[in-house]
Amino acid sequence: LFFDLGAGRKALEALEDHLHNALVEGRACALLKKLSMNKSVCIALQKLNGSELVLNTMDEYTDDERVQANACSVLKEFASIGTETRFQLINLDAAEKVIRAMKLHPNSSATQENACEVLHKLALCRTYRKRMRELGATDRIVFAMDKFTDFPKVQMGAYCALSRIANPHDGEAHRRLRRFEAKHNVLY
Question: CA-CA distance, 148 to 34, in Å (whole number)?
Fold first, then answer.
């Protein structure tokens, strides 16, 4: 745990100190992706301004598919910590940045999968769902479902996100959810 936390601190320092070095930023995001899977390390990284640093990196390297996919993966883990962290991510415009990543990297299953999972976690904050729809989350999630039909993780992430975010009066979104449930024997 101490080694992981030390490596995580170094990765966060790299994000802060080398914002204009794509190679360093990419490697730091990849390391943070692995380290954030440990809940204790994830919490510690988030408390060290991890959310802000990862989101800054997403802003700096919008065209780098690996950075975007890895950053979304880290944000997914941060959003799993709890309500307070989700609200912090919302206030840092995480949904906007994740949706942007989905738009800019439509052929990246990793970006689509992780982004859908971030949106799903952020949608646990009910008051934010309408804003997410306004940002185009529903369209991006549906796109991911349609594009990656043979990718179970993308499908499940998209289903979970859409089930939380979709407007209750959006008939098309709910038809898609029902088709998914029927196809995959999901109980609703």
Answer: 24
CB 54 within 8 A of CB 71: yes
Q: Cα(138)–Cα(161) distance, rounded to whole angstroms?
A: 8
- The residue among 46 and 187 whose pLDDT is bigger is 46
Residue that has been written with the tokens 């802060």 in this structure: 16
Per-residue pLDDT tens over the stretch 31-74: 999 999 999 999 999 999 999 999 999 999 999 999 999 999 99
pLDDT digits (tens, 9 = 90+) for 3-27: 687 899 899 999 999 888 888 888 9
Reported as half-sphere exposure (CB side, CA atoms, 13 A), residue 3 has a value of 1
Cα separation, 63 vs 60, whole angstroms: 9
Q: How far is residue 61's CA from residue 38's CA, in Å, rounded to a whole number?
A: 25
Predicted pLDDT of residue 139: 95
Under 8 Å between Cβ of 98 and 75: yes
User: Residue 178: CB partners within 8 Å, gap ≥ 6?
Assistant: 188
What 3-state DSSP class applies to 93? coil
